[in-house]
Amino acid sequence: MIKINLLEKKSKLEIFFSYFNFFILEVFILIIVIIGIISTMVLINKNLNFQNSIITAEIDSLNGFLRPLQKRNAEIIKSYRDIDDILNKINVVLKIKDRVSIYYKLLMELEKSTPDDCWISNLDFNAKENIVQLKVNALRTSSVNIFVNNLTMNDLFSNVRLQRVSSETQKEFDVNAFLINFSVKEGV
């Protein structure tokens, strides 16, 4: 059997150009792919930059809303502090009022218990121990007993003790001076 090559024989130069054309085609395709990748990256970068600018604009807009809210929040916190200060001052005033009402009640009860011919020349009140010491003058000796009994019968006072009684003459009158100690009951 005889084989006949009907294909024409190509020269080495033709073979080289055919391979070169194929190589150029591959390089051309590679350049197109690289250009496609670069253009895709540029488009993605532009899109990301656009989204970044939108986000930045939104952040600026939200910060525009946030700043007045932060100022208002600071004002509210300051108002709460002012309210706390005012409440503390009110509590101090109420405590002082309670203490004053104790003194007022003490003086009113002493006035009710004092007979007409007696007068208090000295009053010492120890608020820590709730002890009162009175120096009282009276024209009659019986007024001393009446005063001590009135104090004993009063619900505000306890432990009433007559400490000392003395008599002296002042401007033609006999004046009885006496010293009384008693406690003020708690919770009054």
Helicity, in percent? 55-70%
Shape, principal axes of CA atoms: rod-shaped
Q: How many DSSP E strands?
A: 4
Q: DSSP helix count?
A: 2
Element order, helices and strands?
HEEHEE
Task: Look at the structure and name the CATH superfamily of the domain at 113-184.
Answer: General secretion pathway protein M, EpsM
For the largest sheet, list the strands in their spatial order: 1-2-4-3
CATH uppermost class of the domain at 113-184: Alpha Beta
What name does the CATH topology of the domain at 113-184 carry?
Gyrase A, domain 2
What amount of the residues lies in strands?
Answer: 15-25%
The value of Rg in angstroms is 55 Å
CATH architecture call of the domain at 113-184: 2-Layer Sandwich
Instruction: Give a short account of the largest sheet.
Output: 4 strands, antiparallel
Description of the structure:
The protein has 188 residues and is of the alpha+beta class. The protein has a domain at 113-184: Gyrase A, domain 2, CATH 3.30.1360. The protein is 61% helix and 23% strand. It contains two helices and four strands, in the order αββαββ. The protein has a four-stranded antiparallel sheet, with helices on one face. β3 (157-170) and β4 form a beta hairpin. The longest helix has 102 residues, at 12-113. The model has no long low-confidence stretch (mean pLDDT 85).
How would you briefly describe this protein structure?
The protein is 61% helix and 23% strand.
Q: Keywords for this structure?
A:
188 residues, alpha+beta, Gyrase A, domain 2, 2 helices, 4 strands, 61% helix, rod-shaped
